[in-house]
Amino acid sequence: MNTQDHRIRSSSGQAVERLRELIFSGQLGAGSDHLESELAESLGMSRTPVREALLVLEGQGLVDVRPRKGVRIKPLSPVDMAEIYDVLTELESLAAANAAREGYSADDLQQLEHTINLMDSALEENDRGAWARADDAFHAELVQLGRNSRVEAIAQMMSDQVRRARLVTLHMRPVPNRSNEDHRAVLDAIAAGDADTAARVHREHRTAAKKVIVDLLETHHLSSV
Amino acid sequence: MNTQDHRIRSSSGQAVERLRELIFSGQLGAGSDHLESELAESLGMSRTPVREALLVLEGQGLVDVRPRKGVRIKPLSPVDMAEIYDVLTELESLAAANAAREGYSADDLQQLEHTINLMDSALEENDRGAWARADDAFHAELVQLGRNSRVEAIAQMMSDQVRRARLVTLHMRPVPNRSNEDHRAVLDAIAAGDADTAARVHREHRTAAKKVIVDLLETHHLSSV
DNA sequence: GCATAATTTAATGTATACATTAATGGATGA
DNA sequence: TCATCCATTAATGTATACATTAAATTATGC
Fold it and tell me: How many CA atoms lie within 13 A of A60 on its CB side?
C-alpha cells in the first residue's frame, strides 16, 4: 500500500508483510497474544523493525499493542463485522456511482467482467477458495474504478480485517449463487453510466451480504473470530 | 485515539501529540521536509520515539516518510480535498441515518443542539475561529451518535487532514450562514427518527460544502495547502 | 491466615552505536 | 567539455544495551 515496489528491502517492510501473512493464514490466531521478542526471533530480526511493523499493523486495525501484555491479534465480534460491512457498503457504493460517472468504455471494464466470469466458474466447480479470491478481486477492482485513493485505502483496510474471519465462515455459509447476478447488475449500470442504479444495486448487494455473515456468526455463537 | 487517558507518559505518545500540534498550527508547513534528527532534537528526545510517532502519523495520512529526503508534511491538492469530502459525506450521512434509528431522546441530543447554538453565536459575533471549532464539534458529535467506531475513527482522520487547510481557507470563504439551517434540519430528522431525511439532508450539506472549498482552492490557484 | 507492602522479574520504552544506502561531488577518461 | 565512475557523506535502518514500569511473588505485619 505504501512503500516498496516488488522486493521488500527493509526488515521493517518485510516484517509488515510476513506478519500480515501469518495473520491472514491463521497462524497467528484471532485473540492470541505475542511478545515482541518472540515475533522478532521467529522473523529472524531484532525487536526494532518488529516494533515498527506492529505500529503499522495497529494503524491498519489488525493488532492491538497492549503494553506488558503482548500484542493481540485483534478479534472480530459480530458487532465489529457489522461496522466493517457498513463502511464497505457506503464507500463501495460511492465508488460504483463514481465509476459510472467516469464513462468507462467496454474495454475499460473488461477486467471487471473477466473477474465476474472467474466467480461463475468457481461456483460451477464449487471451489469456494477460488470464489473468495475472485470476490476480493471484484471488490478491489470496483473500488479502483471509482478513482478515489482514500476510498481505495480504507476499503482495502476493511477487507483485510474481514479476510481472516472468512477462514472460519467460508465453508459454513450457503453457496453465494445470488452474488453474481448482483455483480453483473453493478457492472451493467456502470457501463450504462447510471450512477444511481450502480450505487443502489451495490448497496443492496452488500447489505444482504452483511446480514448473511452477521447472522451466521450469531447463530454459531462465534462471539469473536 | 488509541493509547493514553490524560497524561501522555511515553515519549512516543508525546511525540505524536506534539507533532500533530505543530502540523495543525502550521509551524510545520504543508509540503515542508524535516529530518528525523532535527525533529528529535526540537522535541528533546532521541530518534527512536520520533520514528515511531512518524509511522503513526503516516498511517493517519498526515506525513509521507521518504527515505533520505526527510519526512514531508503532506500537502493537500484540490483533488485530495474532493476525495476527503466525498468520504466524509458518505460516512457522516451513514452516521446521521444510524443516529436517527437509535431513537435518541431530546435529552440525548441536547449536546448536539448546544453545539449548534454555539455556532449561531459565533456567526453573530463574526468569530470564524469559534465557528470552526464548533463546526468540528458538531460533526464529531454527529458521528458519535451513529455508533460505529470505525466510522468515527475514519471521519476523525479525514477531518484532521482537512483542518490544516482551513488555516488558509477560513478567512477567504463566505460567511457560512446557510450551514446552521442544515445542521438543525439534520438534528430534527434524527430527533424524529427519520433516517432517510437525516442522511439526505446531511449529504446535501456536505456536498455543498465540498463545492465551496474546492472552488475556493481552484479559484485562488492553491494547488496545495 | 489474610491483607498489604516491598522485592523481584519480565516485559516494553528509549538512547545510542553501528550498518547500510542513496545522493552528492569530484576525478578521470575520452 | 561532457559523461561516467568512484569516493565521500549524510541520511535512514537496525541491533543492542540500558531505563522504566507494571505485574507477580514473596515477605511481613496484624
Answer: 23
Nucleic strand D within 7 A of Cβ B65: yes
CATH number at residue A55: 1.10.10.10
The residue behind cell 488558509 is: B168
Report pLDDT for B177: 76
B91 and B198: one domain?
yes
Which residue, B73, B105, B127, sits at the end of a domain? B73
- The Cα B225–Cα B167 span in angstroms is 9
C-alpha cell of residue A67: 503494553
User: Residues B46-99: pLDDT tens digits?
Assistant: 999 999 999 999 999 999 999 989 999 999 999 999 999 999 999 999 999 999
Domain that holds residue B172: 78-219
Q: Which among B83, B86, B94 has the least Cβ separation from residue A86?
A: B94
Q: Which residues in A lie closer than 8 A to residue B150 (C-beta atoms)?
A: 61, 83-84, 87, 158
Helix ranges (DSSP H) in A74-194: 78-101, 110-124, 128-145, 149-169, 177-191
For residue B1, name the pLDDT band (cuts at 50, 70, 90): very low
pLDDT band at A172 (very low <50, low <70, confident <90, very high): confident
Residue B53 contacts A where some CB pair is shorter than 8 Å: no
Chain C bases near protein CB atoms (7 A cut-off) = 11-17, 21-23
Q: How far apart are CA B170 and CA B163, in angstroms?
A: 10
Q: Do B51 and A51 touch (CB under 8 A)?
A: no
Shortest alpha-carbon distance between residue B223 and chain A (Å): 18
Task: Show residues of chain A in contact with B83, CB under 8 Å.
Answer: 148-151
Residue A83 lies in a domain: yes
How much is the mean pLDDT over chain B? 92
The per-residue pLDDT for range B6-34, each reduced to its tens digit, is: 456 889 999 999 999 999 999 999 999 99
Total domains, chain A? 2
CB of A102 less than 8 A from some CB of B:
no
Same domain, A32 and A126: no
Same domain, A108 and A39: no
Residue A210 sits in a domain whose CATH number is: 1.20.120.530
